[in-house]
């Protein structure tokens, strides 16, 4: 199986899971840029994979506001190149195209939990790039018969995630507060709620989709329950034994922020039998331990 984006946070756990399952794991050269159509096609051809899990992306919603063109080039154009390369292979590999729940856009309470049949309404450049990638994936199946399954992960985290994502950003601050005596914990919007799944459960879902997903279908990858970011911050403080006030930093508040983002995971469960197995408290504890070890 070929994994793009294997050097990233999710890629690390994806490789570990595939190897534990006894799969032969293939990766792209470290220097390869998926915007380079010719180089990507040559690398895919050399790999001759039976399946592809496409993780390579510009994955930061916040960064996409300042880097919209680059985000689109990597996430949409890079996906087009990957699908073209896979479609040209005699083996016609199955492809799991990793999108994002951000494609759903702003949701009202009555829309939750959101299902896969809801249309796209992207509010960030990142979300728009992922919606475009999904359309390309759907076209590859409908127009060329390439077996593409689209995964829509909701928030996911775990040990090793960069500190520009919400849970590791908070955990890193908490650990520094414990060591250096910081007087406050700076956060973005505390009132938003997010459906957070452990990355180790998420990579299991991607493999399940590669093996048992229905081509052309989209699948939410989520827990099906959301938690307030303020509650996450307070639990991280408790786990680290730190008592400092939580302060909203205007610079960390996004221009547009969905109040609640909670998905319906039933389609994935029905198709593959996947359910999340790692409780959020263990995830938070493991993230704190990761930062304590840095």
Q: What structural category characterises the helix and strand content?
A: alpha/beta
The major sheet is characterized as:
6 strands, parallel
Summarize model confidence as the mean pLDDT: 95
Question: In percent terms, what proportion of residues is strand?
Answer: 5-15%
Radius of gyration: 19 Å
Shape: globular
Number of helices: 10
What percentage of residues falls in helices of 4 or more residues? 40-55%
Which parts are unreliable, with pLDDT below 50 for 5 consecutive residues or more? Answer: none
Find the count of extended strands (DSSP E, 2+ residues): 13
Give the ordered list of helices and strands: EHEHEHHEHEEHEEEHEEHEEHH
Read across the widest sheet, the strand sequence of neighbours is 2-1-3-4-5-10
What distance separates the N and C termini?
A: 31 Å
Describe the 3D structure.
The structure is a single chain. By secondary structure, this protein is α/β, with parallel strands linked by helices. The chain is 44% helix and 14% strand. The chain is globular, with a radius of gyration of 19 Å. The two termini are 31 Å apart. The mean pLDDT is 95.
Give the SSE map.
Layout: E1 2-4, H1 9-20, E2 26-27, H2 37-47, E3 51-54, H3 61-64, H4 68-87, E4 94-98, H5 125-144, E5 148-153, E6 156-157, H6 166-180, E7 185-187, E8 193-194, E9 197-198, H7 199-212, E10 218-221, E11 227-228, H8 229-240, E12 246-248, E13 260-261, H9 266-272, H10 280-292
Parallel strand pairs: 1-2, 1-3, 3-4, 4-5, 5-10, 6-9, 7-12, 8-13
Antiparallel strand pairs: 8-11
Helix pairs in contact: 1-7, 2-4, 4-5, 6-8, 6-10, 8-10
């Amino acid at each position: 199986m070929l994994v793009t984006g294997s050097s990233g946070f999710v890629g690390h756990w994806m490789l570990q899971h595939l190897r534990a399952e006894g799969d032969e794991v293939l990766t792209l050269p470290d220097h390869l840029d998926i915007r380079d159509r010719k180089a990507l096609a040559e690398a895919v051809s050399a790999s001759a994979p039976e399946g592809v899990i496409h993780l390579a992306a510009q994955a930061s919603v916040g960064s996409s506001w300042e880097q919209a063109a680059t985000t689109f080039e990597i996430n949409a154009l890079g996906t087009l190149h990957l699908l073209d390369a896979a479609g040209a292979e005699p083996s016609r590999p199955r492809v799991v195209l990793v999108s994002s729940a951000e494609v759903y856009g702003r949701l009202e309470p009555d829309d939750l939990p959101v299902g896969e049949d809801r249309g796209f309404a992207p509010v960030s450049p990142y979300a728009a790039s992922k919606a475009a990638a999904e359309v390309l994936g759907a076209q590859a199946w409908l127009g060329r018969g390439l077996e593409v399954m689209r995964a829509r992960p909701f928030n996911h985290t775990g040990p090793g995630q960069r500190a520009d994502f919400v849970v590791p950003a908070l955990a890193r601050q908490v650990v520094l507060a414990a060591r250096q005596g910081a007087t406050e914990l700076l956060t973005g919007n505390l009132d938003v709620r997010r459906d957070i799944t452990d990355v180790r459960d998420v990579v299991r879902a991607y493999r399940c989709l590669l093996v048992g997903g229905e081509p052309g279908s989209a699948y939410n990858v989520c827990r099906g329950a959301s938690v307030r970011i303020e509650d996450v911050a307070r639990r991280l403080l408790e786990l680290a034994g730190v008592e400092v006030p939580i302060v909203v930093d205007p610079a960390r508040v996004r221009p547009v922020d969905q109040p609640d983002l909670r998905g319906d995971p039933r389609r994935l469960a029905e198709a593959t039998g996947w359910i999340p197995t790692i409780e959020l408290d263990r995830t938070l504890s493991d993230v704190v331990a990761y930062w304590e070890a840095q």
